[in-house]
């Protein structure tokens, strides 16, 4: 079992905001693989199933925490504990203001980089040693950061984001089939 966790904020007012890029990737991935759902458990919207990638089946759980970004760790901890999943089998998908909109970076571990959702995941897991896929949303410039990340993508950003969501799904598939090191080489070389 692998856990793929997209970070974001629940509710219509946050739909399609920059901070919900992680949710967007999971939604695209579920559609791409014909996964039905979500249902609510672990304080999250979850979709479980099996996907065939690279000719092999992969059992997984997609998790969208409904606890708001700053408390994302609660859902992660509950799902990890319930399925007794090793941290190496967890991938967190998250927005990042340090990269241009649509740029992707896959890492085996690292710091939260100021991201409150990742800070909370680190707090509850007690480690930074989990894989993360970061999706660039551009730097906020003169806009206060909280207003920027909770704002909607511009038309120009949306044009760059749409193909990036497909590439992010391919990055998740690479993580499933190749493992983190080979997937990093593949994903980060094209960004």
From TrEMBL:
The positions annotated for binding tRNA are 14, 68, 70, 116
Source species of the chain:
Phycisphaera mikurensis (strain NBRC 102666 / KCTC 22515 / FYK2301M01)
| Role summary | Catalyzes the release of premature peptidyl moieties from peptidyl-tRNA molecules trapped in stalled 50S ribosomal subunits, and thus maintains levels of free tRNAs and 50S ribosomes.
Q: Which InterPro entries match?
A: Pept_tRNA_hydro (IPR001328), Pept_tRNA_hydro_CS (IPR018171), Pept_tRNA_hydro_sf (IPR036416)
Q: Which UniProt keywords apply?
A: Cytoplasm, Hydrolase, RNA-binding, tRNA-binding
Which CDD domains does the record cross-reference, listed alphabetically? Answer: PTH
Question: Where does the UniProt entry say this protein principally localizes?
Answer: cytoplasm
Q: Which reaction does it catalyse?
A: an N-acyl-L-alpha-aminoacyl-tRNA + H2O = an N-acyl-L-amino acid + a tRNA + H(+)
Gene Ontology annotations of biological process type: protein quality control for misfolded or incompletely synthesized proteins; rescue of stalled ribosome
Question: Single GO molecular-function term?
Answer: tRNA binding
Concerning its family, UniProt says: Belongs to the PTH family.
- Which cellular compartments is it found in? Cytoplasm
Return the annotated site residues (Discriminates between blocked and unblocked aminoacyl-tRNA): 9
How would you summarize the oligomeric state and partners of this protein?
Monomer.
Query: Which residues of this protein are annotated with the site description Stabilizes the basic form of H active site to accept a proton?
Result: 95
Q: Which GO terms describe its cellular component?
A: cytoplasm
- Which residues does the Swiss-Prot or TrEMBL record annotate as the active site? 19 (proton acceptor)
* Enzyme Commission number, as recorded: 3.1.1.29
Which protein is depicted?
Peptidyl-tRNA hydrolase
């Amino acid at each position: 079992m692998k856990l793929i966790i997209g970070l974001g904020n629940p509710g219509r007012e946050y739909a399609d905001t920059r901070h919900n890029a992680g949710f967007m990737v999971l939604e695209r991935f579920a559609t791409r693989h014909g996964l039905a759902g979500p249902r609510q458990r672990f304080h999250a919207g979850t979709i479980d199933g099996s996907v065939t990638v690279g000719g092999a089946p992969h059992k997984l759980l997609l998790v969208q925490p409904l606890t708001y970004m700053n408390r994302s760790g609660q859902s992660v901890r509950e799902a990890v504990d319930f399925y007794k999943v090793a941290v190496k089998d967890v991938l967190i998908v998250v927005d990042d203001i340090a990269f241009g909109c649509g740029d992707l970076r896959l890492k085996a571990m690292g710091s939260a980089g100021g991201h409150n959702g990742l800070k909370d995941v680190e707090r509850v897991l007690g480690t930074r040693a989990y894989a993360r896929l970061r999706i660039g949303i551009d730097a906020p410039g003169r806009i206060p950061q909280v207003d920027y990340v909770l704002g909607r993508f511009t038309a120009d950003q949306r044009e760059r984001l749409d193909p990036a969501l497909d590439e992010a799904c391919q990055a998740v598939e690479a993580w499933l089939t190749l493992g983190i090191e080979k997937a990093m080489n593949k994903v980060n070389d094209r960004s």
